[in-house]
Amino acid sequence: MKLWRWGKKPLEGRWIAFRIATIYLLVGGLWIIFSDWLISWGVGHPTMLLTHLQTVKGWIFVLITSGMLYMLIYRSMLALQQSETLLHKNEAKTETILHAIPDLMAQISPEGRLIRIKPAHDPADYIPTAQLTGKTVAELFPPEQADQIMRGLRQVSHTCAAQIYEYQQPLNGYLHHYEARLVAGEEEDALAIIRDITQLRRTEAELRRVNRALKALNESNHALLRATGEAELLQQICRLLSRLASIIWPGWLLPGQMIPSPCVWWPRLTMKPGSFKPPI
Q1: Measured distance CA(53)–CA(45) in Å, rounded
Q2: Is the model more confident about 217 or about 179?
Q3: 112: Cβ–Cβ under 8 A, 6 or more apart, which residues?
Q4: Disulfide-capable partner of 125 in 120, 155, 162, 261 (CB 3.0 to 4.6 Å)?
Protein backbone atom coordinates (compact mmCIF):
# COMPACT_ATOMS: atom_id res chain seq x y z
CA MET A 1 0.00 0.00 0.00
CA LYS A 2 1.31 3.43 -0.86
CA LEU A 3 2.52 5.48 2.06
CA TRP A 4 0.66 8.62 1.08
CA ARG A 5 -2.65 6.78 1.46
CA TRP A 6 -2.18 6.41 5.22
CA GLY A 7 -2.23 10.02 6.30
CA LYS A 8 -4.73 12.79 6.10
CA LYS A 9 -2.70 14.60 3.42
CA PRO A 10 -2.37 13.01 -0.04
CA LEU A 11 1.47 13.11 0.04
CA GLU A 12 2.09 12.68 3.77
CA GLY A 13 4.12 9.48 3.21
CA ARG A 14 6.43 11.20 0.77
CA TRP A 15 6.84 14.11 3.15
CA ILE A 16 7.87 11.73 5.96
CA ALA A 17 10.50 10.07 3.73
CA PHE A 18 11.80 13.46 2.59
CA ARG A 19 12.07 14.63 6.20
CA ILE A 20 14.07 11.55 7.22
CA ALA A 21 16.44 11.93 4.27
CA THR A 22 16.92 15.65 4.99
CA ILE A 23 17.80 15.03 8.65
CA TYR A 24 20.25 12.29 7.64
CA LEU A 25 21.84 14.60 5.06
CA LEU A 26 22.28 17.44 7.55
CA VAL A 27 23.79 15.25 10.26
CA GLY A 28 26.12 13.48 7.81
CA GLY A 29 27.25 16.73 6.20
CA LEU A 30 27.99 18.38 9.55
CA TRP A 31 29.88 15.31 10.71
CA ILE A 32 32.05 15.23 7.60
CA ILE A 33 32.81 18.93 7.81
CA PHE A 34 33.75 19.11 11.48
CA SER A 35 35.05 15.62 12.34
CA ASP A 36 38.31 15.84 10.37
CA TRP A 37 39.01 19.28 11.77
CA LEU A 38 38.42 18.07 15.34
CA ILE A 39 40.72 15.06 14.90
CA SER A 40 43.51 17.13 13.31
CA TRP A 41 43.20 19.72 16.04
CA GLY A 42 43.38 17.12 18.82
CA VAL A 43 46.04 14.74 17.43
CA GLY A 44 48.49 16.86 15.52
CA HIS A 45 50.67 15.32 12.76
CA PRO A 46 51.19 11.57 13.48
CA THR A 47 49.96 9.82 10.36
CA MET A 48 49.06 6.33 11.68
CA LEU A 49 47.15 7.63 14.64
CA LEU A 50 45.28 10.02 12.37
CA THR A 51 44.36 7.15 10.05
CA HIS A 52 43.03 4.98 12.90
CA LEU A 53 41.07 7.85 14.33
CA GLN A 54 39.47 8.52 10.95
CA THR A 55 38.43 4.86 10.81
CA VAL A 56 36.94 5.10 14.26
CA LYS A 57 35.27 8.31 13.18
CA GLY A 58 33.66 6.49 10.26
CA TRP A 59 32.31 3.76 12.55
CA ILE A 60 30.99 6.33 14.98
CA PHE A 61 29.28 8.09 12.12
CA VAL A 62 27.67 4.86 10.95
CA LEU A 63 26.48 4.00 14.46
CA ILE A 64 25.07 7.45 15.14
CA THR A 65 23.31 7.75 11.81
CA SER A 66 21.99 4.19 12.09
CA GLY A 67 20.52 4.98 15.51
CA MET A 68 18.98 8.18 14.22
CA LEU A 69 17.50 6.41 11.22
CA TYR A 70 16.14 3.69 13.49
CA MET A 71 14.43 6.24 15.75
CA LEU A 72 13.04 8.24 12.85
CA ILE A 73 11.77 5.17 11.02
CA TYR A 74 10.37 3.68 14.25
CA ARG A 75 8.46 6.85 15.06
CA SER A 76 7.21 7.12 11.50
CA MET A 77 6.07 3.49 11.45
CA LEU A 78 4.40 3.94 14.84
CA ALA A 79 2.51 6.95 13.50
CA LEU A 80 1.56 4.95 10.41
CA GLN A 81 0.32 2.06 12.56
CA GLN A 82 -1.78 4.43 14.62
CA SER A 83 -3.16 5.94 11.44
CA GLU A 84 -3.84 2.46 10.10
CA THR A 85 -5.70 1.48 13.29
CA LEU A 86 -7.77 4.65 13.15
CA LEU A 87 -8.44 4.06 9.46
CA HIS A 88 -9.63 0.50 10.12
CA LYS A 89 -11.94 1.76 12.86
CA ASN A 90 -13.37 4.39 10.55
CA GLU A 91 -13.78 1.82 7.79
CA ALA A 92 -15.55 -0.55 10.17
CA LYS A 93 -17.84 2.23 11.33
CA THR A 94 -18.57 3.21 7.73
CA GLU A 95 -19.28 -0.41 6.79
CA THR A 96 -21.67 -0.70 9.74
CA ILE A 97 -23.52 2.41 8.66
CA LEU A 98 -23.69 1.25 5.05
CA HIS A 99 -24.99 -2.20 5.98
CA ALA A 100 -27.61 -0.59 8.22
CA ILE A 101 -29.08 1.16 5.17
CA PRO A 102 -31.69 -1.22 3.71
CA ASP A 103 -31.50 0.18 0.19
CA LEU A 104 -29.47 -1.10 -2.73
CA MET A 105 -26.26 0.89 -3.20
CA ALA A 106 -23.94 0.94 -6.20
CA GLN A 107 -20.68 2.66 -7.07
CA ILE A 108 -20.84 3.84 -10.68
CA SER A 109 -17.94 5.04 -12.81
CA PRO A 110 -18.24 8.15 -15.02
CA GLU A 111 -18.73 5.80 -17.99
CA GLY A 112 -21.79 4.30 -16.32
CA ARG A 113 -20.21 1.00 -15.26
CA LEU A 114 -21.22 -0.56 -11.93
CA ILE A 115 -18.04 -1.12 -9.89
CA ARG A 116 -19.35 -2.32 -6.53
CA ILE A 117 -22.81 -3.36 -5.36
CA LYS A 118 -24.37 -3.58 -1.89
CA PRO A 119 -27.64 -5.53 -2.20
CA ALA A 120 -30.87 -4.47 -0.56
CA HIS A 121 -32.08 -6.09 2.67
CA ASP A 122 -35.52 -7.01 1.34
CA PRO A 123 -35.40 -10.54 -0.16
CA ALA A 124 -38.03 -9.53 -2.71
CA ASP A 125 -35.67 -6.87 -4.07
CA TYR A 126 -32.53 -9.01 -3.86
CA ILE A 127 -30.56 -9.30 -7.09
CA PRO A 128 -27.26 -11.27 -7.11
CA THR A 129 -24.38 -8.82 -7.31
CA ALA A 130 -22.68 -11.02 -9.91
CA GLN A 131 -25.49 -10.13 -12.31
CA LEU A 132 -24.83 -6.40 -11.91
CA THR A 133 -21.14 -5.90 -11.15
CA GLY A 134 -19.13 -4.88 -14.20
CA LYS A 135 -22.14 -4.13 -16.37
CA THR A 136 -22.99 -0.73 -17.75
CA VAL A 137 -26.15 1.28 -17.29
CA ALA A 138 -26.98 0.82 -20.97
CA GLU A 139 -26.95 -2.97 -20.49
CA LEU A 140 -29.31 -2.92 -17.50
CA PHE A 141 -31.86 -0.23 -18.38
CA PRO A 142 -33.94 0.77 -21.39
CA PRO A 143 -32.43 3.54 -23.54
CA GLU A 144 -34.60 6.31 -22.08
CA GLN A 145 -33.77 5.41 -18.48
CA ALA A 146 -30.09 4.85 -19.31
CA ASP A 147 -29.87 8.34 -20.85
CA GLN A 148 -31.53 9.80 -17.76
CA ILE A 149 -29.02 8.08 -15.46
CA MET A 150 -26.05 9.22 -17.56
CA ARG A 151 -27.33 12.81 -17.49
CA GLY A 152 -27.59 12.51 -13.71
CA LEU A 153 -24.00 11.22 -13.49
CA ARG A 154 -22.75 14.18 -15.51
CA GLN A 155 -24.70 16.60 -13.32
CA VAL A 156 -23.26 15.03 -10.16
CA SER A 157 -19.73 15.22 -11.59
CA HIS A 158 -20.07 18.89 -12.55
CA THR A 159 -22.10 20.30 -9.65
CA CYS A 160 -21.57 17.74 -6.81
CA ALA A 161 -25.30 18.17 -6.09
CA ALA A 162 -27.49 15.13 -5.48
CA GLN A 163 -29.76 14.05 -8.34
CA ILE A 164 -33.09 12.35 -7.55
CA TYR A 165 -35.43 10.71 -10.03
CA GLU A 166 -37.89 7.81 -10.23
CA TYR A 167 -38.21 4.97 -12.68
CA GLN A 168 -40.14 1.74 -13.15
CA GLN A 169 -38.63 -1.71 -13.61
CA PRO A 170 -40.30 -5.16 -13.85
CA LEU A 171 -39.13 -7.62 -11.17
CA ASN A 172 -40.43 -11.14 -10.50
CA GLY A 173 -43.37 -10.57 -12.81
CA TYR A 174 -44.50 -7.30 -11.18
CA LEU A 175 -43.88 -3.68 -12.08
CA HIS A 176 -41.88 -2.00 -9.31
CA HIS A 177 -41.34 1.71 -8.67
CA TYR A 178 -37.87 2.85 -7.65
CA GLU A 179 -36.34 6.10 -6.41
CA ALA A 180 -32.69 6.63 -7.34
CA ARG A 181 -30.40 9.14 -5.62
CA LEU A 182 -27.06 9.95 -7.22
CA VAL A 183 -24.40 11.60 -5.04
CA ALA A 184 -20.73 12.33 -5.60
CA GLY A 185 -18.37 9.56 -4.50
CA GLU A 186 -14.63 8.93 -4.55
CA GLU A 187 -12.74 10.84 -7.24
CA GLU A 188 -15.05 10.95 -10.29
CA ASP A 189 -17.25 8.00 -9.31
CA ALA A 190 -20.83 8.42 -8.15
CA LEU A 191 -22.80 6.58 -5.48
CA ALA A 192 -26.32 5.47 -6.37
CA ILE A 193 -28.83 4.73 -3.59
CA ILE A 194 -31.85 2.90 -5.00
CA ARG A 195 -35.00 2.45 -2.91
CA ASP A 196 -38.06 0.38 -3.77
CA ILE A 197 -41.07 2.70 -3.34
CA THR A 198 -43.64 0.33 -4.85
CA GLN A 199 -45.58 -0.03 -1.60
CA LEU A 200 -45.53 3.74 -1.13
CA ARG A 201 -46.97 4.34 -4.61
CA ARG A 202 -49.62 1.66 -4.03
CA THR A 203 -50.57 3.27 -0.73
CA GLU A 204 -50.81 6.67 -2.39
CA ALA A 205 -53.03 5.23 -5.14
CA GLU A 206 -55.26 3.57 -2.52
CA LEU A 207 -55.51 6.85 -0.61
CA ARG A 208 -56.53 8.66 -3.79
CA ARG A 209 -59.20 6.02 -4.43
CA VAL A 210 -60.52 6.31 -0.87
CA ASN A 211 -60.55 10.11 -1.14
CA ARG A 212 -62.58 9.91 -4.35
CA ALA A 213 -65.03 7.52 -2.67
CA LEU A 214 -65.33 9.81 0.35
CA LYS A 215 -65.88 12.80 -1.91
CA ALA A 216 -68.65 10.98 -3.78
CA LEU A 217 -70.24 9.91 -0.48
CA ASN A 218 -70.05 13.47 0.80
CA GLU A 219 -71.78 14.75 -2.33
CA SER A 220 -74.47 12.08 -1.92
CA ASN A 221 -75.00 13.14 1.69
CA HIS A 222 -75.39 16.76 0.61
CA ALA A 223 -77.90 15.74 -2.05
CA LEU A 224 -79.81 13.66 0.50
CA LEU A 225 -79.88 16.57 2.92
CA ARG A 226 -81.16 18.86 0.20
CA ALA A 227 -83.86 16.32 -0.72
CA THR A 228 -84.83 15.93 2.94
CA GLY A 229 -85.09 19.68 3.31
CA GLU A 230 -87.23 19.93 0.19
CA ALA A 231 -89.54 17.18 1.49
CA GLU A 232 -89.97 18.96 4.82
CA LEU A 233 -90.70 22.20 2.98
CA LEU A 234 -93.30 20.43 0.84
CA GLN A 235 -94.94 19.01 3.97
CA GLN A 236 -95.11 22.46 5.52
CA ILE A 237 -96.70 23.83 2.35
CA CYS A 238 -99.23 21.00 2.42
CA ARG A 239 -100.12 21.77 6.03
CA LEU A 240 -100.58 25.43 5.21
CA LEU A 241 -102.79 24.62 2.23
CA SER A 242 -104.81 22.23 4.37
CA ARG A 243 -105.45 24.90 6.96
CA LEU A 244 -106.47 27.35 4.29
CA ALA A 245 -108.74 24.76 2.73
CA SER A 246 -110.33 23.92 6.09
CA ILE A 247 -111.13 27.58 6.55
CA ILE A 248 -112.52 28.07 3.06
CA TRP A 249 -114.13 24.66 2.53
CA PRO A 250 -114.52 22.78 5.80
CA GLY A 251 -115.87 19.76 3.98
CA TRP A 252 -112.46 19.03 2.49
CA LEU A 253 -111.32 17.47 5.72
CA LEU A 254 -112.52 13.97 6.42
CA PRO A 255 -113.73 13.21 9.93
CA GLY A 256 -110.79 12.88 12.33
CA GLN A 257 -108.25 14.27 9.78
CA MET A 258 -106.12 17.32 10.39
CA ILE A 259 -104.68 17.21 6.87
CA PRO A 260 -106.95 16.22 3.98
CA SER A 261 -106.08 13.13 2.04
CA PRO A 262 -104.61 13.90 -1.37
CA CYS A 263 -107.16 11.59 -2.95
CA VAL A 264 -109.85 13.87 -1.49
CA TRP A 265 -108.57 17.38 -1.95
CA TRP A 266 -106.48 17.05 -5.07
CA PRO A 267 -109.43 16.34 -7.37
CA ARG A 268 -111.28 19.18 -5.72
CA LEU A 269 -108.57 21.62 -6.58
CA THR A 270 -108.86 20.62 -10.22
CA MET A 271 -112.69 21.00 -10.32
CA LYS A 272 -114.35 23.94 -11.95
CA PRO A 273 -115.78 26.58 -9.64
CA GLY A 274 -119.31 25.69 -8.46
CA SER A 275 -119.03 22.00 -9.40
CA PHE A 276 -117.85 20.83 -5.97
CA LYS A 277 -120.39 19.29 -3.61
CA PRO A 278 -119.32 18.79 -0.04
CA PRO A 279 -119.73 15.25 1.27
CA ILE A 280 -122.83 14.52 3.42
Answers
A1: 12
A2: 179
A3: 136, 137, 138, 146, 149, 150, 153
A4: 120
Out of 68-82, 144-158, 179-193, least confident range: 68-82
Out of 119-123, 156-160, 197-201, least confident range: 119-123
Which CATH number goes with the domain that contains 109?
Answer: 3.30.450.20
Domain co-membership, 110 together with 189: yes
State pTM to two decimals: 0.50
Distance (Å, rounded) from C-alpha 131 to C-alpha 110?
A: 20
Residues 161 and 218 in one domain: no
Amino acid symbol at 96: T
Residue 11 CA to residue 198 CA, distance in Å, equals: 47
Residue 146 confidence class, pLDDT cut points 50, 70, 90: confident
Three-class secondary structure assignment of the chain: CCHHHCCCCCCHHHHHHHHHHHHHHHHHHHHHHHHHHHHHHHHCCCHHHHHHHHHHHHHHHHHHHHHHHHHHHHHHHHHHHHHHHHHHHHHHHHHHHHHHCCCEEEEECCCCEEEEEECCCCHHHCCCHHHCCCCEHHHHCCHHHHHHHHHHHHHHHHHCCCEEEEEEEEECCEEEEEEEEEEECCCCCEEEEEEECHHHHHHHHHHHHHHHHHHHHHHHHHHHHHHHHHHHHHHHHHHHHHHHHHHHCHHHCCCCCCCCCHHHHHHHHHCCCCCCCCCC
